[in-house]
Design a protein that fits this description.
Blueprint: H1 30-36, H2 46-63, H3 77-88, E1 94-99, H4 102-113, E2 117-122, H5 131-140, E3 146-150, H6 162-171, E4 175-179, H7 202-215, H8 223-227
């Protein structure tokens, strides 16, 4: 018997039935489970491409945007958050992070790891982000490239006014990264693009976001593919 073999006999895994009542993971509809058991096909298969286009159009409806760069990422919600920061924050970029819970703190970590310069706007856990505090930070940091905040902070359930915060960011010519993982499709928020930027001015901001991507150290989007409206990864959504 190999020295690397496990000490106990491994059997097929059969997870027990649980009632999941948190923000995630959540229970999966039987129809989705049935679909996931279907045969795999390649990502360049014409059937897959057609399905992806349909999925993107449905996502645009959910996000209430016409932005063609609206597409899904395969992975947990934090992958979408990291995708946005890695693509939109270049070393030295100043980023205003609004923190009122755990995931605002995760945004802060992403800024630091991307080499950005964070400016922290803090509110008490359980309180929404204060727009007045954000505007004060924007006035003091007019060179800020991005404003990042959580629409509905998963750790506390506190909902911030996404439309007002995005309007402030755009007033000072900053892009926005919004974590809407627990609010998208449930709470009205203007036009909010999941783990990405609310699309209040989609055409202009989409171009600005792409320019920001090209400045980053490790951009995950192919510039040539982006100009054709396609991406290298199966990924998030910008404006």
């Amino acid at each position: 018997m190999s020295q690397y073999a496990p000490t106990k006999r491994i059997h097929s895994f059969h997870p027990p039935q649980r009632t999941l009542m948190g923000p995630g993971p959540t229970e999966i509809h039987p129809r989705v489970l049935t679909t996931m058991s279907q045969p795999a096909i390649g990502y360049l298969d014409p059937v897959f491409v057609e399905m992806m286009e349909e999925l993107k159009s449905l996502l645009r409806y959910v996000y209430q945007t016409k932005n063609p760069l609206t597409f899904p990422i395969s992975g947990p919600g934090s992958v979408g958050m990291e995708y946005c920061f890695v693509n939109m924050v270049a070393p030295g970029d100043k980023v205003i992070v609004c923190q009122n819970g755990v995931f605002g703190g995760r945004m802060l970590e992403n800024v630091i790891r991307a080499g950005g310069v964070p400016v922290l706007v803090e509110d008490k856990w359980g309180d929404p982000v204060d727009p007045h505090k954000l505007e004060d930070a924007l006035k003091k940091n007019r060179d800020a490239k991005v404003v990042a905040f959580v629409h509905a902070e998963t750790s506390t359930g506190a909902q911030s006014d996404a439309k007002a915060l995005v309007k402030l960011a755009h007033k000072y010519d900053a892009l926005t990264i919004v974590d809407a993982v627990t609010s998208l499709g449930q709470r009205p928020s203007g036009s909010t693009n999941g783990r990405s930027t609310p699309s209040i001015r989609p055409a202009r901001n989409a171009c600005r976001a792409l320019r920001a991507c090209r400045r980053c150290r490790f951009p995950s989007v192919s510039s040539n593919a982006s100009r054709r409206g396609r991406t290298r990864s199966t990924a998030g959504s910008w404006t």
